Every structure is written in C-alpha cells, then in structure tokens.
C-alpha cells in the first residue's frame, strides 16, 4: 500500500504545484485571480498566445520563485474503475529540492532533497506506516523538474488547447515529453488570463488515461521556511516498510 502511495504521490507532485509571481516582479495593487488567490499583479503586459511563449513564461516563474506555501485540492480519476477521489491539504516547497505535502487525512509526502518519505496513518487509531527511499534521477518523473525550477521547455512538445472547452478563460497549455516518460503521457497547465506564467491548476495524465489534478489557493511566495519542516519524525509505533 505504501509503495502504491509513494508512486501515486511522486507522479502527482511531478506537476503537483504551480509557481506564481516572484517578489522581484514590479507590481501594481493586488488583484484576485481565477482561482481566488490574491496575487500582486505584474505591470500590464499582453498575455502570450502561442504555446512556446506561454511555456517559457511558466518556466520563468518556476525558476525565479524560491519558496511556496499553499492549500491544495487534488482530484485523482482512475479511468478503468471510473473512480474519482478528492483530497485536500497543504504544500510547502523550498528550493533546491525540498517539498512537503501534508494531507488533511494525515498522509504525508516529503523530500528533503536526499530522500522521499511517504507516511500513511493507521485505521481507527492503529499505528501508521511509512516508506523512505533515496532520491535518484531514475525515480523522479521528468515533470518533477517544473517543481524544482529545472524544467526545460525544449524537453516538451507544446500546444495550446481550447480554453472554452476546458471552462478556462486563460491559456491552457499542453506539454508532452519528447522522450517517453513511463509515468507521464502529458501535462496540462491552466494559466492565468491576465498574469503571464501564473498557473492555478494543473493536470497530469498517464499512459492508461488516469489523471491527477491539483488546484492551489491561499498561495504565499518567497517567505522564509524552516528547514525542520522537511525532516520527518514518524509517530510512535509507526512501522517502516520497503
């Protein structure tokens, strides 16, 4: 179960967070975005309308943002079983390579840059269990590079999808890895209609047609983050599994 949890979370987190305006961007009075997140809006600029320019703008925001904290809603859909599961929680990220997802139901996924840890609480007060694995290049989905700010637009084939058909007024950017990723068939980023590069919703689709979607709200950028938040101390009685 923990192995499946770890795999599911890694795939999700590969695109599981989006970065918005960096503190160094010149700002106007704050405005409210499509997702309801209060942001400091960059000075008026035309939102790019071609796929590669949109992708480059997103990449620039990821690369320039050092820390991020947000509430998230995750929606996972399993195609074969026609089953949809929703989860909520809080995300904290601190470059390089440190992140933590605390789910409201008690699950935890974190990386301190050296190890991945996935924890799942037990049922009805029973001890939980956790898995801990070294971070290796072969274990991290290519999409994870967007989260760390190391993604390269040139690694993806890009195109803009219809915003109207997706119920979105801004650019909807599809990214397909040029080199086959065994975990990710395509990524879909929902970009702000007014603020270039700001992503509020993202969707990961695997080769079986299963999807994981994340939406962020109450986002805070470039705030100091205590390194202790990326250290995991298992609750008493928890069992480590491989």
Explain what you see.
The structure is a single chain. The protein has 3 helices and 14 strands. It is mainly β. The chain has one domain: Lipoprotein localisation LolA/LolB/LppX (outer membrane lipoprotein receptor (LolB), chain A, Clam), CATH 2.50.20.10. The longest helix has 14 residues. It is globular, with a radius of gyration of 18 Å.
Uncertain runs with pLDDT below 50, 5 residues or more?
1-7, 10-42
Count the helices. How many? Answer: 3
> What is the multimeric organization of the chains shown?
single chain
Taken from the alpha-carbon principal axes, the silhouette is globular
- Between the first and last Cα atoms, what is the distance in angstroms? 10 Å
Helix/strand structural class:
mainly beta
Calculate Rg over CA atoms: 18 Å
Instruction: Return the CATH class.
Output: Mainly Beta
CATH homologous superfamily heading:
Lipoprotein localisation LolA/LolB/LppX
What is the helix/strand order? HEEHEEEEEEHEEEEEE
Number of strands: 14
Strands across the major sheet, in which order? 9-10-11-12-13-3-4-5-6-7-8-14
Give a brief outline of the structure.
With 242 residues, the chain is mainly β.
Question: What's the topology here?
Answer:
Layout (H helix, E strand, L loop, with lengths): L1 H12 L17 E2 L5 E2 L11 H14 L2 E12 L4 E12 L3 E6 L4 E5 L2 E6 L8 E6 L9 H5 L7 E6 L10 E6 L8 E6 L7 E7 L5 E11 L17 E2 L2
Parallel strand pairs: 8-14
Antiparallel strand pairs: 1-2, 3-4, 3-13, 4-5, 5-6, 6-7, 7-8, 9-10, 10-11, 11-12, 12-13
């Amino acid at each position: 179960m923990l192995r499946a949890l770890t795999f599911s979370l890694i795939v999700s987190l590969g695109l599981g967070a989006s970065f918005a305006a960096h503190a160094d961007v010149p700002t106007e009075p704050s405005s409210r975005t499509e997702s309801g997140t209060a942001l400091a809006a960059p000075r008026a600029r035309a939102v790019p309308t071609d796929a590669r320019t949109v992708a480059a703008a997103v990449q620039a925001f990821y690369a320039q943002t050092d820390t991020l904290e947000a509430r998230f809603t995750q929606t996972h859909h399993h195609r074969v079983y026609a089953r949809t599961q929703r989860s909520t929680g809080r995300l904290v990220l601190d470059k390089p390579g440190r992140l933590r997802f605390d789910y409201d139901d008690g699950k935890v996924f974190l990386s301190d840059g050296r190890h991945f840890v996935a924890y799942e609480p037990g049922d009805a007060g029973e001890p939980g269990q956790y898995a801990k694995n070294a971070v290796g290049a072969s274990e991290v989905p290519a999409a994870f590079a967007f989260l760390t700010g190391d993604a390269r637009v040139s690694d993806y084939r890009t195109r803009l999808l219809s915003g109207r058909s997706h119920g979105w007024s801004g650019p909807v950017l599809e990214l397909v890895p040029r080199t086959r990723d065994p975990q990710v068939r395509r990524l879909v980023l929902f970009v702000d209609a007014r603020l270039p590069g700001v992503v509020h919703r993202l969707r990961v689709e695997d080769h079986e047609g299963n999807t994981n979607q994340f939406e962020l709200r109450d986002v805070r950028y470039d705030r100091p983050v205590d390194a202790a938040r990326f250290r995991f101390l298992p609750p008493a009685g928890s069992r480590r599994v491989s």
